Amino acid sequence: MSATDAVAWLGRVDYREAWALQRGLAEARRQGLAPDTILLVEHPPTFTLGRRGTPDHILMDADSLRRSAVAVVPIDRGGDITYHGPGQLVAYPILHLARWGSDISHYVRLLEEVGIHTAAAFGVTAGRQPGHAGVWVGNDKLMAIGVRVSRWVATHGLALNVAPDLSYFAGIIPCGLTDRGVTSLECLLGAAPAMAETRAELVTAFGDVFGLRLTEHTAATVAGWALPAPPEPAPSAGQLGRVHAL
Questions:
Q1: Do 5 and 211 touch, CB atoms closer than 8 A?
Q2: pLDDT tens digits, 232-246
């Protein structure tokens, strides 16, 4: 296995496909068969419901969801509900946290720092809000964070709003918060930076903040490292309800 860490741009990928790849890479990382790896993706319109999420945080009815072609996927990360879609840069770091002190709270703070550094590269001053994970500009969230750590290997990660259609967020209660908004680099700057440029700045920030020695790999290469993905976890009781009917 390479002595360097890996980063791969997967392009636009169905959410469940990327989730299965994460699970397979995480198992390979636990067994020492894959390096620490960062997957970079965009997704088609998708609402993901974390372990604390409940269907009543979806404000759209089943017909509206079908017309909008939005998938609803209950998942095993922490946090509540969020939106993923075109124009949003999503990073899934598959990292063994022993390198960073096996401290989940510290890991989340490092992810926030990556977002803060990336925003700063475009002249945007962003920061934290006590008690609420993510990267914020005032009272608006620029980057969401939701992670899962199992046997000290992290999956899921962060979602940076570059130029998504923010109207989709009106169809949910983002992260279960009713008194805060959502923003994007496009809204803050008046024009969106190119996705390729944003990816480059995000990769640089990951390298600087985490001390990673990142080497670019193809999607096919990282998929080849993955072991067969464990079964998709069943939704928790809080995630059940009308989700299955959507």
A1: no
A2: 887 876 675 544 433
User: Is pTM, for the whole model, over 0.70?
Assistant: yes
For the question of residue 175 being annotated catalytic, the response is yes
Q: Which residue, among 33, 35, 40, has the nearest Cα to 12 in the 3D structure?
A: 40
Catalytic residue among 38, 75, 175, 212: 175
* CATH number of the domain to which 25 belongs: 3.30.930.10
Distance between CA 122 and CA 142 in Å, rounded?
13
Please count the other Cβ atoms lying within 10 Å of the Cβ belonging to residue 170.
12
Rounded distance between C-alpha atoms, residue 22 and residue 35, angstroms? 13
Whether 46 and 85 have beta carbons less than 8 Å apart is answered as: yes
Q: pLDDT tens, 1-29?
A: 556 899 999 999 999 999 999 999 999 99
The domain containing residue 96 runs over which residues? 5-245
d(CA 201, CA 204): 5
Both tokens of residue 188?
């803050």
Residues in the chain: 246
Beta strands in 66-186 (DSSP E): 71-74, 81-84, 88-94, 127-129, 132-137, 140-150, 153-161, 181-182
Number of domain units in the chain: 1
Which two structure tokens, joined as six digits, stand for 237? 């009781």
